[in-house]
Amino acid sequence: MSEIKVNSIKGVGASAAAITVNNTDGTCTANLSNRQNKNLIINGDFKIAQRSTSSSTTGYATVDRWKTDRSGLDESPTFSQADVTSGTTPYTNGFRKAFKITNGNQTSGAGSDDYLYFFQKIEAQDIAQSGWNYTSSSSYVTLSFWVKSSVAQNFYGYLRSMDGTSKIYPFETGALSQDTWTKVTKTISGASGNQIDNDNGEGLRVVIAPFWGTDLTASSVNLNQWATFASSTRAPDYTSTWYTTNDATFEITGVQLEVSDHATDFEHRSFGQELELCKRYYQQYPEIASDGYSAYGLGAAQSTTAAHFTPTFPTMRAAPTIALSGNNRFTSGGTARSVTSLTLFHASASSLFTGVNVASGLTNGHAGSFGADNDTTAKLTFSAEL
To answer: Is residue 320 in some structural domain?
Structure first.
C-alpha cells in the first residue's frame, strides 16, 4: 500500500497551510474559511436596525448590538445605517449595509476631554467557550473589518477584557486614504492576566474611535500588545483633522472576530439568523413599521388594570427591562381606553407579566387587546443589552 508522509499541505503561493498534520499522533487541522458560527461579533455587517436607521442619540439607538458614546461635542453627530455603494469592494463581497457616523460642527476645536467612539460588548461565555485560550500568547483571535473615512488619517481602536483586572489591546487602522474603503486586519494573541468568566455578563469589548481627546490618550501607549486598562491611556495621541472637519464621515462594515491566526472570509448569515441573534438582547413590538394600530397581545381586565403576558422569542440574555412609548390603548368590550402606564409584575429571560393601566372603565374578567392607538411611532420594547 502506498503512503504519503507530509507535515502540511499548502496551495501554490499561499501563505498558510490548508492542512497541518501532527507528526506525533497523525491528526490534522484543516484551515477552513467557510466554517459556520465563527464570527463572535453579532451584526457585523450592520444589516439589523430594529430601533431606527438614523439617530443623534448615543447608546443603543440605531444598528443592533452596537453602542455609541460621545462627550464634549459642540454639535451632535448623526449615527446611521447606510447603504454600501455598488461597485465598491465591500459591495462586491456581499455587503449592502454599513454603520456611518456623520460628524457635527465642532466649532470650539478638539477639547482634551472630547471623545466619540462606538463599540460592541460580547457576552463572556461566548468568548470563554469559543476555543480561544485568551491567557496564552500562542493562541489567537483575528479582528477584520472594512473602513472608510472622508478625511485621510489614522484611527485607533482596542479590545478590552472586562472581568478581573481589565486589560486593553490597542491597535490602529493605519493611514486611510480619503473616501476609500480599506480592509483592516489585526491578529491578536492571548496574554497571561486576561480573565473572561463563563457567564452572561460582558467579557470582551471591541472599540473603534473616530476621536479621543488627550485626556484619554498618551504618546507612550504601545500598539498591538496587552496592558492594564487605564482611561487615560486608551490609544496614542490622535490626529484631530477628522474631528474638526464639519460633516466628516466615518463608515465601517464587515466586522468579524474569529478564533484564528489569520482572517478568513466574512461569515454572511441570513437576515433571519442575524435578527434572531440580535433578539437575545433587544426585542420590540411592532417588529416593522406599522399602520398605527399594531397589537402587542391580549389581556384580561381587572378594574383599571389589564393583566398582560408576553413571551420572549428567543429567550433573552437576562430578564429584560420594559418600556412603552407613544400612544397606546387597551380595547375591551368594544371600547378603546388610553393606556396611562405599565406595571411590571414579573420578568424572566423567557417571559414578562405586566399590568396595563388605564384611567377607568374596565370590567373584571373581560378579555381585551393591547396595542398602539393610531400612532406609527408607538412601541413596546424589551432590552437585555449588556
So the answer is: yes
Q: Residue 41 domain-assigned?
A: no
Can you tell me which residue has the cell 465598491?
A: 88
Distance (Å, whole) CA 236 – CA 305: 57
Q: What are φ and ψ of residue 126, in 5° steps?
A: -70, -30
Same domain membership, residue 349 and residue 220: no
Residue the block writes with cell 491566526: 261
Our count of domains for the chain comes to 3
Task: Give the residue among 166, 196, 202 at the shortest CA–CA distance from 317.
Answer: 202
DSSP code for 215: G
CA distance 133 to 139: 6
Task: Please list the alpha-helical segments (H only) found in the chain.
Answer: 89-92, 124-128, 271-278
Residue 188 and residue 84 share a domain: yes
pTM of the predicted protein model: 0.92
pLDDT > 90 fraction of the chain, expressed in percent and rounded: 88
Task: Verify that 300 and 207 share a domain, yes or no.
Answer: no
Give residue 10's region: left, alpha or beta (phi > 0; psi -120 to 50): beta
Same domain, 14 and 59: no
CA-nearest of 105, 60, 63 to 82 is: 63
Where in the sequence is the domain holding 217, given as residue range(s)? Answer: 54-278
Q: Clarify whether residues 295 and 174 are in a common domain.
A: no
Boundary (domain end) residue, out of 258, 278, 298: 278
Three-state secondary-structure class, residue 267: coil
pLDDT category at 33 given cuts 50, 70, 90 is low
Work out the pLDDT band at 28, boundaries 50, 70, 90.
Answer: low
Instruction: Tell me the per-residue pLDDT of 326-349, one tens digit each, with 9 for 90 and over.
Output: 999 999 999 999 999 999 999 999
Task: Evaluate whether residue 38 is within a structural domain.
Answer: no
Q: Are 66 and 53 in contact (CB under 8 A)?
A: no
Whether residues 253 and 117 share a domain: the answer is yes
Nearest to 330 by CA among 286, 275, 293: 293
The model's pLDDT over 99-139, given as tens digits with 9 standing for 90+, comes to 999 999 999 999 999 999 999 999 999 999 999 999 999 99
In the chain, the amino acid numbered 327 is N
Are 320 and 187 within one domain? no
Residue 303 pLDDT exceeds 90: no
